[in-house]
Design brief:
There is one protein chain. By secondary structure, this protein is mainly alpha-helical. The protein has 2 domains: about 55 residues, no CATH class; about 160 residues, no CATH class. Helix content is about 85%, strand content about 0%. The longest helix is centred in the last third of the chain and has 28 residues. The protein is globular.
């Protein structure tokens, strides 16, 4: 058994199996927010690693193919954005305004709240890029003096929360336009939110992909300027 736990294929299969099981439960529940597959598959995998005493380095190496494929998957999100290019051009002004408001709100709200509780600068630097994708957030946090690993966890948490509550919140606010709904989710909840938006509507998914990409670049630029000013 010890030899099996050390093999890459075993943990790769376990990871895919746990996520597939969580996703099946989510589908059968009608995609209820509290049954988001990432929310449940992550603690299950952490528990299995702790139970078997498997080092994280072993798990990271075993699941490298999944991590590697994340890059092409993110690039693939450009395809639906390209298909919506004519519509996006017509919405250029509201998109720019919404992007600026969303990026600034994301940074100010997270850093502002933690500042009120006296959080150290490392934590503030780690949470500032929380609405961007994980690689971008880790790079930004590292340059700002934060903790890249903590930034990755915060980004994951922000994405799951956004994917869980965006739809009911937007329904409550009576936002019916899938273009606006998708873009808001992409700006606030990056790739995980975009994946959820595609489950709801293809136009919402395309706009979420656009929001995710633009927000990553905008947040990086805003935080770079902020660092220079400070």
């Amino acid at each position: 058994m010890t030899g099996l736990l050390a093999t890459s294929l075993f943990w790769l299969a376990v990871t895919l199996g746990v996520f597939e099981a969580a996703d099946t439960v989510s589908k059968r529940s009608g995609r209820r927010p509290l049954l988001h597959p990432v929310l449940w598959s992550t603690p299950v995998l952490i528990g299995l690693l702790l139970w078997t005493g498997t080092p994280y380095e072993t798990y990271q190496q075993a699941t490298f193919p999944i991590s590697f494929l994340l890059g092409p998957a993110v690039v693939g999100l450009a395809v639906p954005v390209w298909a919506q290019r004519a519509r996006i051009r017509r919405l250029a002004v509201p998109i720019v305004l919404a992007l600026g408001a969303g990026a600034i709100t994301s940074i100010v709200s997270a850093v502002g709240v933690l500042s009120l509780f006296g959080a150290p600068s490392e934590i503030l630097a780690s949470i500032a890029p929380r609405a961007t994708t994980t690689p971008v957030a880790m790079a930004i946090a590292g340059q700002l003096g934060g903790v890249p690993a903590l930034a990755a966890v915060i980004v994951l948490f922000a994405g799951v929360i956004g994917a869980m509550f965006a739809t009911p919140l937007l329904n409550l606010l009576n936002v019916r336009d899938y273009r606006a709904r998708g873009f808001a989710v992409g700006v606030a909840a990056h790739g995980i939110g975009a994946a959820r938006a595609f489950q709801v509507d293809s136009t919402a998914g395309a706009m979420a992909s656009l929001g995710m990409a633009l927000n990553a670049a905008t947040t990086a630029a805003l935080l770079s300027i902020l660092v220079l000013l400070v």
